[in-house]
């Protein structure tokens, strides 16, 4: 279980959110809902260490962390809205990069895990392609594989259906529900209400909370 307690973020005098609290249960999909531009992406970036919070605490399975503690942020895998794949690396190389450089696993071990993830996500034939050769839906699945390769406690998605067509969106839905069956906890930021209805166990009204 992940508990976010009293999280606050501001830029100068501008408060983005203050004393925000929420809970993500094990194996649950929690959708954070609200219109664009109100700070949902900032929340995700704060939880993954890309932005620094002014205050807050995160409790992971009973152990407390400061929100900016790398020991906590490393447990959350982020799927970027614009994918953020390295254009000069193949699909396999994009997925292998962090396990080999951060976790220091061998190439053989990294390749084996990457092969398993590619098979699970229907990307085996794309292993040696470059990002420019992929569709938007395929890039999204590579982003998911890259996050899963680090064995995170939580997968966090930033607007995962943005720019995707109906078929690709359905693929994302299927993948998220399949991961849920495997017990993967997932946090998704979205303004796509029909998508949220399909995947979420619980919803969090971000706009309502930040206006309290």
TrEMBL record:
<dbReference type="InterPro" id="IPR017871">
    <property type="entry name" value="ABC_transporter-like_CS"/>
</dbReference>
<feature type="domain" description="ABC transporter">
    <location>
        <begin position="2"/>
        <end position="210"/>
    </location>
</feature>
<dbReference type="GO" id="GO:0016887">
    <property type="term" value="F:ATP hydrolysis activity"/>
</dbReference>
<protein>
    <submittedName>
        <fullName>Polar amino acid transport system ATP-binding protein</fullName>
    </submittedName>
</protein>
<dbReference type="InterPro" id="IPR027417">
    <property type="entry name" value="P-loop_NTPase"/>
</dbReference>
<keyword id="KW-0813">Transport</keyword>
<dbReference type="GO" id="GO:0005524">
    <property type="term" value="F:ATP binding"/>
</dbReference>
<dbReference type="Pfam" id="PF00005">
    <property type="entry name" value="ABC_tran"/>
</dbReference>
<dbReference type="InterPro" id="IPR003439">
    <property type="entry name" value="ABC_transporter-like_ATP-bd"/>
</dbReference>
<keyword id="KW-0067">ATP-binding</keyword>
<keyword id="KW-0547">Nucleotide-binding</keyword>
<dbReference type="InterPro" id="IPR003593">
    <property type="entry name" value="AAA+_ATPase"/>
</dbReference>
């Amino acid at each position: 279980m992940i508990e976010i307690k009293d999280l606050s973020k501001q830029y100068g005098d501008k408060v983005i959110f203050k004393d925000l609290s929420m809970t993500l249960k094990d194996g649950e999909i929690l959708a954070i809902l609200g219109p664009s531009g109100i700070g949902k992406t900032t929340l995700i970036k704060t939880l993954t260490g890309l932005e620094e919070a002014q205050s807050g605490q995160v409790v992971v399975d009973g152990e407390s962390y400061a929100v900016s503690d790398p020991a906590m942020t490393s447990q959350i895998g982020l799927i970027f809205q614009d994918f953020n794949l390295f254009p000069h690396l193949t699909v396999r190389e994009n997925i292998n990069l962090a396990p080999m450089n951060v976790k220091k696993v061998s190439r053989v071990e990294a390749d084996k895990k990457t092969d398993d993830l590619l098979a699970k996500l229907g990307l085996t034939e794309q292993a040696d392609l470059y990002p420019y050769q992929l569709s938007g839906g395929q890039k999204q699945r590579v982003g998911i594989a890259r996050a899963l390769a680090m064995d995170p406690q939580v997968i966090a998605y930033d607007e995962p259906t943005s720019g995707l067509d109906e078929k690709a969106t359905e693929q994302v839905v299927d993948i998220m529900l399949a991961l849920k069956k495997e017990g993967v906890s997932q946090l998704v930021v979205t303004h796509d209400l029909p998508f949220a209805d399909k995947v979420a166990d619980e919803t969090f009204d971000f706009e309502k909370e930040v206006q309290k």
